[in-house]
Each structure stands twice: as structure tokens, then as C-alpha cells.
Structures
1.
Amino acid sequence: MKRRPLNPDFRALVVQRYISARQAYALTQAELADLIEVSPPCISMFEAGRTLLRADKLFEAAIVLGISLDEVSSEWAVQAGRVAEGQA
């Protein structure tokens, strides 16, 4: 099965939510990396949009940062016109 690339708008929204949440908690990239057991360059490259976190690390970071991936997905679906507001 051929892998399809992640929608760039969705990817950018996810990254921005993670950056905003990390900054709101006053965590450095290194501190977040330590909490989810990845290298600091991994967080830096993720926030720069050059790479993705593995799914398990994405969820660990979401828990640490208080992010709901369901809410981010719903917001993107509305912004992208995939669903009407209130249906997501």
C-alpha cells in the first residue's frame, strides 16, 4: 500500500498547536524532548516542519501539552471546508 503524504495544511496546524502549547507551558524544546524521550533535535525538526514525530510520541506530547488531537482534526476539517462548523 502506497503511503500518501500528510496534507500540508493539516500538518502546519498540528505543528502550530504543539508550538503554542509548549510555549504556553514555558517548556523548552529540550524539556519537551526529555519528557517524551526523544532527542531535542527531533523536536526542533518537528517544529520546523521538516519531520513528523512517530505516532506514539505525537500522542505522548499531546498528553504532556494538553492538546486534543480530535479538536485539531475537527478544526482543520472545518477550515478546509471538509465539514460544516458544528459537524466536526
2.
Amino acid sequence: MNTPIPETLNMLVLTLTAAGAVFLLLFLVMYARLHAFIALMVVSILAGLFSGMPVKKIIETMQEGMAGTLGFLAIITAS
């Protein structure tokens, strides 16, 4: 028997996930002295998992985001 999750509970989980991700990112960079890129990758994966995204979708989204950013930087650097 699957009961639907109330919309307010879903919004609360997503809000807490976003707030937790920000605090975790700050902790990893400032106190754990982890490189910012690696910390951002770890936090992004964890935020995606906690928000209910499938692992395959998380990987695809990260690949698309990095490709778009690197392509944009390549255009600026080449100019």
C-alpha cells in the first residue's frame, strides 16, 4: 500500500537537503581542507541522492553541467 507523500513534507525534505548541502560544503572546504572542486562533487552527489534522484540521472546531470561550463570557458579562453 503506497501512500503519497504530502507536498509540504516533500518541500521540507528538499529545503533541509539544500541547507545541509551548503553547510556540508562549507565544512569540507573550510575545516576538512578538501579541495573545493572535490568537495562540490561529493556534496552534489549526496544532495542528489537525498533528494531522491536516481544515480544514473545524477551522473548525467553532472556530465552535462561540466561539459557546458568547460565549453563556455574554452570559448572565453580562445577569444
3.
Amino acid sequence: MRGMKKVILGIFFVLIVSLLAACTESNENAADEEQEERVVAVEAKEAVEKDLVIEKSIYGRTAPNHAAPVMAQAPGEVKEVRVENGEKVKDDNIIIKISTAAGNQNVRSTTDGEVINLLVNKGDMVDPEEPVAMVADLDTVKIEFSVTEQLLSFISEEDKVDVFVEGEEYEAKVTNVGTLPNETGLYSVIATVDNEEREILPGVVADIRIPEKKMESAILVPTSAVVSEENKSFIFIVKDNVATKQEIKVLETESDVTAIEGKVKAGELVVTTGQLTLTDGAEVNVTGGE
């Protein structure tokens, strides 16, 4: 009887030990999994040292660099139309032929260019006070816009400015800067863009970028890397797969780039995605963005 009790106790002891071992192993596995889960996947980019130009967007409109109306000398009926819209013509080319009280008359272009607004058809009556067409120089397009007195100090003739028209970027040259304000208190400015490929149409909106301020040799990071907490700004610097939280001072922001001041060097990796879940000293896995 006593022998049987010993056997039962022995089996019970073995079960208890096995259960404890299993629990310990399970806890160790859970700890390992938890440790793995603490590794945060992030994207990062290098901080750089370069000049930062702060630009101001001003909206204007495109127009032919030069346009001249085609006028009849006398009233009459259109007998023949010699051109079509979009057709290139030379100075003195015949645009239309009309029949007048004094006989037939040729109505000619007074400049080289492209017909952009043909207003008559065969059989129409023409009035010498109204143009029958417009001939324009579209090899160069001018962009007309207005600026405040404050911005005027940043613009000079011959300056090059970036211009965006229908999503495409072009370089324009400032050709005229107004010296007197108009009735709204703004100053008129004209810039020109080469348009030999006819990519820019007249009459469309243009976004002109005026350099308003320049910071030389600034430390720049992606704006997405900056985190704001309690009126303070931080970034996370990655070194040896560890993210260190670093307080910074934001100097200037220009769209997706921010100039900062702090213990950050050019070439250091800063977290741009995933930083909102990070804590100081967290282990990270950089998955992209470099």
C-alpha cells in the first residue's frame, strides 16, 4: 500500500515539474515574441546641409508675347478665307479677301505669328472697326502677375523664376517690373517663357514662385520627420538600429523640407514614417526611405 502511494506521489511530482517547465518555456517564448514585437518598422532619410530658399507662390495668367489684330480697311463681304486657326503666317500674308463698294480688297497680317482667333467665315460681313482675326507670337509666352510692395524688393529684371503651368515646371525670365502701383496697390510684373514646342496655351493660370528668403548652409530634414509635443519639436535619429529622440528648433519650413537647429548632423538618419509609435531608445528596423 505504501509502495503504491509512493508511485502515485512520484507520478504527481513528475506532472507538476513538467507543467512548471511548460509554463516557463511558454513565458520565455512570450517574452521572446514580445521582444520581437518591440522592433518597430520605420522609414528614414538622411539629414542634409544645404541652402534653403523660401518661395512665395503668386498666381498670374499666360498671354501671347505679342499679338496684333487683323483689320479690314472698309466694310464688305468675305469672299475667301485664306487661313485657319493655328496656322503660321508672315507679315503681309493675305488673311481674307472681301468685296467692298470700291471693289475687292485683300486683308493682310501686319506681323509674323500664328492665327489664334479667326472671327469670320465666307459670306460674313466685316466692319473696319472690328478685327477679323488675331495674329500672335506664341514662340514666347508672357506671364502677367502682380506683387505687393514687400515682394517687389525680391524681384528684378533679368531674374529667373520657376513657373508651374498645368502641372509642368518652366523657367521664366522677368522682363518688366512696374514702378508704380495699380488701383489695387499692387505692382505689375511680366516674365517670359520659351514656348517653341507650343506646350503653353495663352489664357491659362500660372503659378510663379518668388524667392522670398534664403538660409545658407542649413541642416535640412524632411518635414514629415518633425514631431510636435507640448510646444516642443523633436525628431528621432537612427543609429545601429536604435532610435534616439532629439529635441530640435524649427527655423523655417518650405513645403516638404524643414530647416532645423539642434544636435543633428548632415548624414544622420532621421525617421520619417513610424515615429509616432516610437519611444526614446526603441529598437527599429529601417525598411525604406533612405
4.
Amino acid sequence: MFSEAIIIPVIIAIIEILKGLGLPKKFAPLVSLVLGMLSGIFYLDHPELKVRIFQGLIYGLSAAGLYSGAKNTLEEVRHRRKYVK
């Protein structure tokens, strides 16, 4: 069985695939949350459902934030390079 740490990159990859297939960018965080909850419910093995849902929400929020943070950082770097040259 895979480590739980792989859930976040998998969610990000699925979101990127869905965006490539036409998912509007504004719905990406919502889909990330849903995928996180589903992964928590069906993948994690904690005996309590509410704990699995909560952990799934954390994974979905982390995936959305990780993607958003990386995207914003890259945009800032590109913006600064544009004005430095």
C-alpha cells in the first residue's frame, strides 16, 4: 500500500488532467476538495468515517494550496525577470 503522502500529488495530477480535458480553472479547488474527501473515505483505513473525511479535506486543501502557491511563485518569478532584463 502507498504512503498517504502520495495522495496530494495524485490529486494535483488528476486536477491537471481534468483541466487539460476542459475543467474550468475556477472549479479546480472545489474538485480538489471532493477528490480529497473521496480519497479520505475510500483510501484511508481509520475506523471513524468523520476522521477519514477530515483527513481527506486536509489533503484536498493541501493539494489546492500547493498548486496555487507554486503557480503564484512562478508567476512572480516570471514577472520579476521580465522587468529585470
